[in-house]
Amino acid sequence: SEDVAADPNIQLTWMPDADSAIVGVIDSGIALSHARFRRIDGGTRFLSAWLQGGEWRSGAAVPFGRELFRTEIDRLMWRASVGGAIDEAAFDRAAGLTQFGHARGDRRLENNATHGTHVADLAAGFDLSDGSFDEARRRLPIIGVGLPPRTSMGANGNFLEFFAIHAVEYIIDRADRIWKACGYGPDGGFPIVINLSYGLKAGPKDGHMLIEEVIRAATEKSDEIGRPIRVILPAGNDLMSEGVAEFALPDDRPVTLDWRIRPEDHTPNFAEVWSEQISGAGGSGPAHPLTAVVRLPLGPGSPAAAGRAGQMTTLTDDADPETPLARIYCRKHDNKPPGGTGDPAWHRVGYYLCTAPTLEEDRMAGAPSGRWTIEVAGKGKNSDRAHAYVQSDQTLTFGSVTGLLSTFDHPDFRPVDYAGRAIDVYDYPIDGVAPTLTDLPPPITRRGSLNAIANNDAVRVIGSYRATDGKASVFSSAASSEPVGDGRAAPTALLPGVDGAARFGVMAAGSKSGSAAAMQGTSFSTALATRRVALAMLEWIDGDRNGQAPGSEGWFEITASDEDADADWPGQVPEIKGGHGRMTRPGTGRLPR
């Protein structure tokens, strides 16, 4: 739009020193006025923040949402001050973080804890009363991006990738503009460590989703100028979600997979079926080498013909042929980078299976709940293996549980053992015996549950372990035993995501100053990894930037291997689940539990 400014009006009453490193946080519900993110003088450590779900202002240098620089954040904090303390709820409303005036407005910060504040605290929060953190607090300013509510990203995260791409590019752009505004010269820039504790369950998982290509291009460009950019993502919490199937296809015989869709689901359900790599570009509409038939519970099925990229077919009930209950879309995917020249070396074709919500309302007919069936068959070349995934499914309204995740089902799959304990990929013997593979047999598997946007070598991927005994968290996702294309064969490393068997999650900031909460998951292990890298980056800067910058895959390999060995944990974690090993948590200034 012509109303979008080409250059932002950078407003900083305090400029970061040249020996600083930027911590970028991309998340939801980040409490900008929280005391853990303030300087010693009471001002904010956020250099800028982009609220993607905020109200856009004419002349802003962002295409949507609301951008605030430090000066405006400080001014809003001062206006919300009462008796020397900040009324943080009033600040949230004034800044547009909390939107009571919109039916679907963001109100996450009105809860006792939020994902984004918890992550930001673990990644870059400091206690104002602890003088030992003064140097790190001064030298680790923050650039934040608040992702919009689920009403914008979709219950299945359909548009997460595009908001996240904008967020990554925003953090890098603003960091570079601030470097130049500080007068540090046209070359170089602040080292940047970006925490993106989000992900998707389904996708091609070959390292070439658009966001993965954007991150790869950004990190390669930064390496050329000697300014490191590190992007750190979670492995995911989906190992037990029963949403991954990887299986061989016998000739002329379909493999049947049950897809269980729950009743009273307010949101659509999605699953994907992907081919193997196929050499060459494939043209504009390549045929899928597999056929995928979707059958309603006790109802008809879709055509058995192989689809072509760009095609779509609709599944209806015989009793009401005008009402769509499900659709199958066919899409091409390849390894050509965005803006690249020449033809891709290979392509793949994927089926996107989508059902209507099972909740029946007056304005629409609900899809039937129960056991849907997916039959996958292959004929000829490139049809000997298939990959199927259930996509994320969350409620559009924060705090509601009306978005119900579907699962795959198969008679050979066992989610728990005979004692009722969840089955992991491997067991965890504590007597020095090597772990035994427990993820048997196909087609449903726990392997391949890694975050779909975290499958290339340009990002660091962090899983979780239990701090008391080093056991990998059972929810922490694992890589595929046979990754496709350039997909990852393992996460990068593990950091604590659970304090202990009787101590849920890890402690960090609640949504308001002075509060704390425990949250569990690889998102918070990722934030601890971000903190480790950011603090190590300051040491690297102090050492005249000699040697490899912290946060590379090699740095994690050395650090995790050494710390895992030094910890002398009672058991081992296989690489497919634990990567290079288990790292110790950095100090956050909180009392140990």
CATH superfamily of the largest domain: Peptidase S8/S53 domain
Q: In what range is the share of β-strand residues?
A: 15-25%
Report low-confidence residues grouped into runs of 5 or more.
none
What integer is the average pLDDT? 91
Brief overview, please?
This protein is α/β, with parallel strands linked by helices and 593 residues long. 19% of the residues lie in helices and 22% in strands.
Describe the fold and architecture.
The protein is about 20% helix and about 20% strand. A hairpin with a 2-residue loop joins strand 14 and strand 15 (about 320-335). The strands form 5 sheets. An 8-stranded mixed sheet has the order 3-2-6-1-7-8-20-21, with helices on both faces. Strands 9, 11, 12, 14, 15, 16 and 18 form a 7-stranded antiparallel sheet that branches. A 4-stranded antiparallel sheet has the order 13-17-10-19, with no helix packed on it. The radius of gyration is 24 Å and the shape is globular. The chain contains 10 helices and 23 strands. The protein has 3 domains: about 20-235, Rossmann fold; about 245-410, Jelly Rolls (Sandwich); about 460-580, no CATH class. The longest helix is centred in the N-terminal third of the chain and has 22 residues, at about 160-180. Helix 1 crosses helix 2 (about 90-95) and helix 3 packs parallel to helix 8. The mean pLDDT is about 90. It is of the alpha/beta class.
